[in-house]
Backbone:
């Protein structure tokens, strides 16, 4: 995701790791994780609902999670292994390397956590995370996740539908867009001491996108609390868009009339648009988006329009030029 810092070829070879290399790394990381398990255990926050003991190095089990129609069986694709989902990350607040977030976020404490809600809503305020989530039932949803760097995963998220949250907050007539911000705290997020992006990380959706039933505010994965490196304690998941729309560790949600600025668009406006819908027909200026490597696979597979969610989301973009609105 670095702007013009790499050549296309680098993306293909180093970021999209062949299985053999990444298996070796996983073996190494598994050993490292075991060595650090004692320390990691102490940093795990209590469960959002009924606290349960976590396996060493893993998040607490989440209770009361309802199954949905978005099951692995319905998707018909294998889940990406937990080890890859949690050790091959993009989270620049903890470094720009793929394994940096897992290595550098171990001490991050995602509690206490509050979320500020402002702008065009009937119920603005600062909510404690637990209060923010409590009115909703946690759901499990297995989604494809496609990074703009042309790798992908299949992840069993746990979260609450963004649409339900917005309905509860009471959007007013001016709520045309939803803007999100990540925590800005270089003490706790050492990657923010570098100017690799403008902090805080910002993202946004059009209100109809935010209200689409697929959009999820995730608080967990694999039935457990979100690991720090995956955006604890709460992050967005927008499965039909490139992964950078799925902003992590959210502290602020603003409903507003104007399209909000977004971090990657500020960093590279020619490369990263506001919409960022997965579109195999529109290449990134430095590499093709036609194919992707599912992490764990050796061969690439063709990418699908809207990451395979065209039926659910296609109508939102009817009449829009998807080349202009990349
Ligand atoms: N959110 C914040 N705050 N900072 C980031 O650097 N990276 C984005 C997105 N959300 C990022 C972020 C990118 S580029 C991707 S691909 C996904 O997070 C990666 O999510 P994952 O590490 O859980 O797979």
Residues:
């Amino acid at each position: 995701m670095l702007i013009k810092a790499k050549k296309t070829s680098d993306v293909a070879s180093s970021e999209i790791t062949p299985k053999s290399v990444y298996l070796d790394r996983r073996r190494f990381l598994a050993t490292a994780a075991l060595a650090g398990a004692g320390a990691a255990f102490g940093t795990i926050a209590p469960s959002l609902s009924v606290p349960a003991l976590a396996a060493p190095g893993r998040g607490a089990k989440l209770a009361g999670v309802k199954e949905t129609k978005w099951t692995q069986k319905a998707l018909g694709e294998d889940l990406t292994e937990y080890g890859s989902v949690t050790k091959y990350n993009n989270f620049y607040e903890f470094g720009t390397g793929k394994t940096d977030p897992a290595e550098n976020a171990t001490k991050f404490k995602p509690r206490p956590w509050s979320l500020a809600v402002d702008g065009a809503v009937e119920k603005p305020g600062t909510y404690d995370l637990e209060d923010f989530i409590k009115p909703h039932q946690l759901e499990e949803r297995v989604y494809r996740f496609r990074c703009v760097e042309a790798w992908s995963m299949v992840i069993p998220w746990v979260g609450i539908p963004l649409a339900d949250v917005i309905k509860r907050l009471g959007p007013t007539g001016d709520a045309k867009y939803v803007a999100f911000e990540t925590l800005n705290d270089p003490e706790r997020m050492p990657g923010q001491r570098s100017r690799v992006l403008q902090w805080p990380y910002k993202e946004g959706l059009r209100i109809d996108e935010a209200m689409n039933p697929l959009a999820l505010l995730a608080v967990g994965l694999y039935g457990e609390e979100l690991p720090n490196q995956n955006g604890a304690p709460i992050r967005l998941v927008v499965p039909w868009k490139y992964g950078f729309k799925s902003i992590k560790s959210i502290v602020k949600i603003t409903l507003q009339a104007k399209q909000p600025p977004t971090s990657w668009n500020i960093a590279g406006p020619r490369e990263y648009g506001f919409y960022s819908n997965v579109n195999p027909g529109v290449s990134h200026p430095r590499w093709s988006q036609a194919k992707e490597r599912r992490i764990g696979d050796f061969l690439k597979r063709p990418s699908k329009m809207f990451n395979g969610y065209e039926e659910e989301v296609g109508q939102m973009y009817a009449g829009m030029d998807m080349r202009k609105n990349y």
Q: What stands out?
A: Residues 1, 89-93, 147, 182, 201, 230, 243-244, 246-249 surround MTE (CB under 6 Å).
